Amino acid sequence: MQAAIFVLVVLVFVAVSGALVRLVRVPLPVLQIAIGAVLAWPVRGIHVEIDPELFLLVFIPPLLFSDAFGAPKRELMALRGPILDLAIGLVFFTIVGFGYALHWLVPSIPLVVAFALAAVLSPTDAVAVSSIVDRNVVPARLMHILEGESLLNDASGLVMFRFAVAAALTGSFSFAAASLSFLYAVAVGILAGVAALFVAAKALQLLNRIGGVPAEAQVLITILLPFVAYLGAEHFGASGILAAVTAGLLTGSTGIFRFLGVSARMQTISLWTTFSFVFNGALFIVLGLQLPEIIRKVPPELSSRHWLLEPVLTVLLLTLCLIALRFVWIWIGDIAAGFAARLGKRKAEPFGLRVRLAGSVAGVRGAITLAGILSLPLALQDGSPFPARDLVIFLAAGVIICSLVIASLALPVIARGLVEPGEDAGAAEERMARVGAAKAAIARLESIAQTDEEEGDVPGLKLAAANGIVAAYRRRIAASDEADEARAEMREAGRLEIDLRLAGIAAERDALRAMLRRGEINDHTARALFTEITLTEALLNGRQTRK
Fold this sequence. Notes:
Strand content: under 5%
Largest sheet: none
Order of helices and strands: HHHHHHHHHHHHHHHHHHHHH
Shape: globular
Structural class: mainly alpha
Mean pLDDT: 77
Oligomer: single chain
Number of helices: 21
């Protein structure tokens, strides 16, 4: 009963935060973390112990799947170089640089434990990035790089975190074994995502062949997909996070949704939008619920001189260290990309100083960092306490909050003026897609209208319905006539119009899929137009059923 009440309370405050964010003018994640901290701070406040594995299973697969599904694949593929550079190269650079800096700043933390904290802090949080970073402020190219990095670096960061913890437990580390394990986790994680997607497609295809299956059963399969991918990869000791991301990235391009009925498609669109909002909000509120307990237990290593100043200053210095490491790596990568472009006789597209700084500040940390650090074992193999466990948990929580606050306050100032005023490229692309889809629909309708009328059709009605305006006038005239023959003619005209409209919609959908495959439009544009088409199709099917 207490668990049910806790879930209801969290959901209530998720809804409240959605309204409050319009009044307080702070980023939604920061507000939700603050709400969670307020709920937990009083003496009799809400307290909840997080099981890290359960926390990752409940929140991370659906959120990463949703973000990966909505990510623009065309842009991610075009920017795969800098994305992989940040998702893999920056992770290792951060582990080494931040690990040594932490050990120097807080000598009581053993070096191998410092590397573990650096590894779990190296991934940026996809949920936090998308919630904090304003797409209207940050240049589109940088935004796509940040999205792609945050989707992929969780796997590399958490895998290296496991190796560092294992080294702390056993006192030994093998670079060759770690490299092979990393490659295994990545490869099997990707395969698990592909396999889960294949199973889901076959299940939807089977339900589609059976016919008459409730739309809710089809929707349930799409909901289970990220969890199946995650659990399948974890079962084989691979990266469940990468499996969920892979499934999300490939879902749109595989055409799995063509096996969904119109009603199921509408429910899926609505449900995933609601899921994304609810899970995002619940995640940050639960994150806030952990803070008071962590802050109450300020480690003595950070409170020997001043109870408040020393911990805050340490957290701030560590956060700035992470930002500086990102800035240096982005700067080096930018120089290397420019040099490679000149060697390949291509036009270089270097980032300016402010864009590099914006990309550095936007690398916020979030739930995956907290869940990972809370999974630290309590004791070593000999039974002695795990060294500096409470200290690194405190520092990880502090860096999460500090990175969110710095990004929320500094990013709008740094990025002001980076995006030039004018028409959004996405809007122009969407207009082009609409024109192309409409032309395809017109061509299909004209072709149908010019075919011979089938036996039983009222002469001339097919052409009249295709012309649209003529059909509307014919229905208006027929509606004023009470003759049975006129009413039958009106119904027949309406049926023909619906059939033609559905044919036009099918042509629109085919044209959009072709443009998406050719890379002429991205996923954002395609998803917006597919949603409109699905809604229109549902209305027409409803009219057809009533007739």
